[in-house]
Design goal:
The complex is a heterodimer of chains A (109) and B (389). Chain A is mostly beta strands and 109 residues long. In chain A, 0% of the residues lie in helices and 40% in strands. Chain B has a 5-stranded parallel beta sheet, with helices on one face. Chain B has helices at residues 11-22, 127-137, 150-161, 177-194, 290-304, 370-378; strands at residues 3-7, 28-33, 71-75, 79-83, 88-91, 96-98, 101-104, 108-110, 121-122, 143-146, 166-170, 198-201, 205-209, 216-219, 224-226, 229-232, 236-238, 254-256, 267-269, 274-278, 283-285, 309-311, 317-322, 325-331, 338-345, 350-357, 360-367, 386-388. In chain B, a hairpin with a 4-residue loop joins strand 25 (338-345) and strand 26.
């Protein structure tokens, strides 16, 4: 598991980025925490910098929205899903269990 | 609608085909494109593709899903004439395609300067241009870039990253003063100096020196800048010449209303070739931005299919990547707007600035502030949406 931050450092509506093998973004949607790959599947943009609206994160560069629950894009230009990861909270600390899924960009889950 | 012809097989043309299918149109779609290539993305041509970090496959726009669009592609064919009353498009092969709807998506081409025919003098608009320039940059500098607009600046940035000696020449006293205003133009242009690019401003280009191959660029003040290669980045001209006498109104772009309709019903225009009424700006604009070439086709498709269209008042948006810095701009700046920095410090090359008119925020520029930009662009003064039909 990768340590992310203290729970209090990730308030509602905010996001943090952590460096793993690939960068991962963790979001707080009304108290529910979600983790996905941070880099947009379209081009080079960090989704932690995106606009959060409910469970959708809008990419800051070309505005594709990804569903944090599934990782799926809801529209173009991105076509491929981002990986989702399990978030674990222990002793007021946020961790991410990086998904070992070998889901390749391009496969639709 | 049983048959629709799209002229231009790039971002706007492909987006039109996708939008028509997404809106349940099941008739015939023919897309005509004068380039031999399948649609590709242009922004990387001055960035990662030019740097050799992206391949032709990486910049392809079509995806496997697009096979379902069932498009009859006519690549390598140029449209040479339009009979608007019959919605008939004539191809260079002599073939004529008559359809119920026509989408004009012919984009723009790079402007040139007299003498540009010399070997070593480049423009950058197409994949072939980028391949030629990439090969030239591999031979080394010095490189002279004429024009410090976005494409010129991106080429300079990429060439510096490849280790070339680069000089940028700009006729205006301040680069990017048109889109960004003089204050922000100066701050953004400082990126060149940070990265060892020479910037010569306020002086025009008199001509090129060299017989077959360019050896130098001669400036209006008599100075000569030695050049192994030159990139002319002085803007783009819409590809609308072929519409002369067609019955479709053209005035430095195909004139359309906010729903992308030209003066002729059943003929719409989208993307870089369209001079459209823009509700956000309250003016007709010819936007040369990627996002516009994706958004307009959705409206145009709905218009052609006779569906209710909510004309979005979204602020025009573009981005530019230079020297590892991401610029984002939304809104519409006019001379006289008052700009102020609202966050960050220009010295850190990380800040956001808001342009105001009569106290209202009308545009925002963000430099390496993508998250803040997302908030500020949503605070721009947007007119109420207008539902037509
Ligand atoms: C180097 C470069 C970098 C860019 N970077 C950015 C960026 O960072 N951010 C941003 O927002 N925008 C950027 N842009 C702008 C963006 O790429 C354009 O706005 C977009 O390509 C417009 O799409 P379009 O389909 O309207 O026109 P185009 O992409 O110009 O395509 C028009 C197509 O129609 C074809 N055509 C023309 N006439 C005919 C004819 N008579 N018959 C048949 N076919 C015809 C053309 O050959 C072309 O293939 C960049 C552009 C360039 C060139
Ligand atoms: S980089 Fe995310 S949509 Fe383009």
């Amino acid at each position: 598991m990768i340590p992310v931050c203290a729970v209090r450092d990730l308030p509602v509506g905010e996001a943090v980025r952590v460096e793993a093998d690939v960068p991962i973004a963790v979001f707080n949607v009304d108290g529910e925490l979600y983790a996905i790959d941070d880099t947009c599947t379209h081009q080079d943009a960090s989704l932690a910098d995106g606009w959060l609206e409910g469970c959708l994160i809008e990419c800051p560069l070309h505005a594709t929205c990804f569903d944090l629950r599934t990782g799926n894009p809801t529209g173009p230009p991105a076509k491929k899903p981002v990986r989702t990861h399990e978030v674990v909270v222990e002793n007021d600390h946020v961790y991410v269990r990086v998904s070992t899924s070998i889901l390749q960009h391009g496969d639709v889950a | 609608m049983r048959a629709i012809t799209v002229v231009g097989a790039s971002l706007a043309g492909l987006s039109a085909a996708r939008a028509l299918r997404a809106q349940s149109y099941d008739g015939r779609i023919v897309v005509i494109g004068d380039e031999p290539h399948q649609p590709y993305d242009r922004p990387p041509l001055s960035k990662d593709f030019l740097a050799g970090k992206a391949t032709v496959e990486d910049i392809a726009l079509s995806t496997p899903d697009d096979a379902a669009l069932d498009v009859d592609w006519r690549l390598g064919h140029k449209a040479v004439g339009l009979d608007a009353a019959r919605r008939a498009v004539r191809l260079d092969s002599g073939e004529e395609l008559v359809s119920d709807g026509v989408v004009l998506a012919t984009g723009a081409r790079a402007r040139t300067l007299p003498g540009s025919a010399l070997t070593g003098v480049h423009t950058l608009r197409s994949l072939d241009d980028a391949l030629a320039l990439r090969a030239e940059l591999a031979e080394g500098g010095p490189l002279v870039v004429i024009g410090a607009g976005f494409i010129g600046a991106e080429v300079a940035s990429t060439a510096r990253s490849l280790g070339l000696d680069v000089t940028v020449v700009e006729a205006l006293p301040t680069p990017l003063a048109g889109p960004l205003g003089p204050e922000m133009g100066a701050l953004v242009a400082a990126l060149h100096l940070d990265h060892g690019t020479r910037l010569v401003t306020g002086v025009g280009v008199a001509g090129f020196v060299g017989e077959e191959r360019v050896r130098a660029v001669r400036l209006a003040d008599g100075r000569e800048l030695p050049a192994a290669a030159v990139v002319v980045g002085v803007g783009a001209t819409p590809n609308v010449d072929w519409l002369a006498g067609s019955g479709v109104g053209v005035d430095g772009g195909v004139l359309t209303d906010a729903r992308c309709v030209t003066e002729v019903p059943g003929i719409v225009a989208v993307g870089d070739c369209a001079l459209s009424y823009n509700r956000f700006a309250g003016a007709v604009l010819r936007l040369e931005h990627w996002t516009n070439a994706v958004q307009q086709p959705e409206i145009a498709a709905a218009t052609l299919l006779g569906r209710r269209v909510e004309v979005r008042s979204a602020a025009p948006y573009f981005w530019s990547d230079q020297y590892g810095v991401r610029l984002q701009f939304a809104g519409h700046r006019r001379p006289g707007d008052v700009v102020g920095i609202v966050e960050g410090d220009p010295a850190d090359r990380s800040f956001a600035a808001v342009y105001r008119r009569g106290g209202h925020p009308v545009a925002v520029l963000a430099v390496n502030q993508p998250k803040l930009f997302g908030r500020l662009r949503r605070e721009l003064a947007v007119p109420e949406p207008e539902v037509v039909r």
